[in-house]
Amino acid sequence: MNPQPPAGSAAWEGHQAGDGAVYRKECRSTQSVDGYFVITTEWSADPAAATVDPVVLAQQAVDSMLLTGPAIASPRAEGTYSVGVPMWLWVTPGPTTWGPNTASASAGGITVTATATVSSISWRMGDGSTVTCTGPGTAYSAARGMSPSPDCGHVYRTPSAHQPANKYQGTATTTWTVNWAVIGGGQTGQLTEVRQSPFTVSVGELQVVGQ
Question: Could you give phi then psi for residue 171, rounded to 5 degrees?
Answer without folding.
Answer: -140, 130
